[in-house]
Design brief:
By secondary structure, the protein is of the alpha+beta class. The chain contains ten helices and four strands; from the N terminus they run βααβαααβαααβαα. The protein binds adenosine-5'-triphosphate and magnesium ion (MG).
Amino acid sequence: MIQQRERSLVLIKPDGVQRSLVGEIIKRYEKTGLKLVALKFVIPDEETVKKHYLSDKGWLESVGKKAISAYEKKGIEPPIKDPIECGQAVLNVLLKYIISGPVVAMVWEGSEAVGVIRKITGGTEPLTSDVGTIRGDFTIDSYKLADVDGRAVRNLIHASGSSVEAEKEIKIWFEDEEVIKYRLVQESILYDVNLDGIKE
Ligand code: ATP
Ligand code: MG
């Protein structure tokens, strides 16, 4: 793949929509120079969300491991010790969260799109996401609070974790023809070798 064409799937989750952050979130990605190539506003169904998270074979286990190690770091005995079983419990609460209302699904394209988007988005747990990131700046949820209430961490956004993951996820949310191929004028200044034609 040409580097400049790396793509990332981003979802503004239901809490992002309900917090009136759609414009603010899109603005942050847009200002980087990445190109918006697909966008839709939908209430997702359970099947789509399951497909999305289970498209990555190792996801259940890795999410379960992360949850277990978060408990251990705090010196708390994890309620479920098997990573896959724990991942399944996360998926159950996550499903409820993502299908609770409309979400904005988008595809962003450009050099290192996956990494750039994740940097701006911030780490999974808003409480510890860096200042300046979307999750760090606009919400305050934590694993602790989510656990007490038996719900998913509300962190405003999903962003693809790798280019391979992104390509799988894009197919789940968009038909091929819904992803628009076009040139953005600013791509010249971002990527072209020659900067001819600027001076008069
Ligand atoms: P995302 O995939 O949403 O960009 P991420 O890759 O950092 O974030 P994952 O580990 O893939 O997060 O988990 C997916 C989502 O599940 C998280 O964004 C969060 O909403 C929820 N989640 C993950 N782990 C937990 C947990 N231990 N307890 C509650 N909710 C969780
Ligand atoms: Mg993830």
